[in-house]
Amino acid sequence: MSTTPLPATLPRLPAHDARFADSLAPEARIRELDLGPGLWAVERTGPDTQVLYVHNPTNELQAFYPATVFGGDVTPVFLSGDITTAGEEGAGLIVRLAPKGDVWLARTATTDEETP
């Protein structure tokens, strides 16, 4: 049995955020990422932004480092999901996903300026 969600079952962001429109446009680059065993991830990339969806289809807590996708000096913008975090901003940030949980994170060219 595959743990990869079908494209039709990928949850939508709860609200449209114009800052990330280029990543969510039909012409955005879409690729599946390997963030480690037990996680399924998709990255959408536009000219100026990245949006990351990560799903934990397992029955165990799973964790990943957003820095592996966004770079070590970026603290991603939380868009939606149910997570706990540990570590520090940037490369030290660890995101923990509960069993069957998911999260949407994003980055813009000015992410650091937009996050308080």
Summarize the structure in words.
The protein is mostly beta strands and 116 residues long. The protein has one domain: Golgi alpha-mannosidase II (Immunoglobulin-like, Sandwich). Helices cover 10% and strands 35% of the residues. The chain has 3 helices and 8 strands. It has helices spanning 21-24, 67-70, 111-114, and strands at residues 29-33, 40-45, 49-55, 62-64, 77-81, 83-86, 94-97, 102-108. The chain has a 5-stranded antiparallel beta sheet with strand order 1-2-3-8-5. It has a 3-stranded antiparallel beta sheet with strand order 4-7-6, with no helix packed on it. The longest helix has 4 residues, at 21-24. The model is unreliable at 112-116 (pLDDT under 50).
What name does CATH use for the topology?
Immunoglobulin-like
Amount of helix: 10-25%
Number of helices: 3
Strand order of the largest sheet: 1-2-3-8-5
The CATH homologous superfamily is termed Golgi alpha-mannosidase II
N-to-C SSE string, H for helix and E for strand: HEEEEHEEEEH
Q: Which regions are unreliable across 5 or more consecutive residues at pLDDT < 50?
A: 112-116
Rounded mean pLDDT is 81
Q: Which tags fit this structure?
A:
single chain, 3-stranded antiparallel β-sheet, 5-stranded antiparallel β-sheet, mainly beta, 35% strand, 116 residues
SSE topology sketch:
Blueprint: H1 21-24, E1 29-33, E2 40-45, E3 49-55, E4 62-64, H2 67-70, E5 77-81, E6 83-86, E7 94-97, E8 102-108, H3 111-114
Antiparallel strand pairs: 1-2, 2-3, 3-8, 4-7, 5-8, 6-7
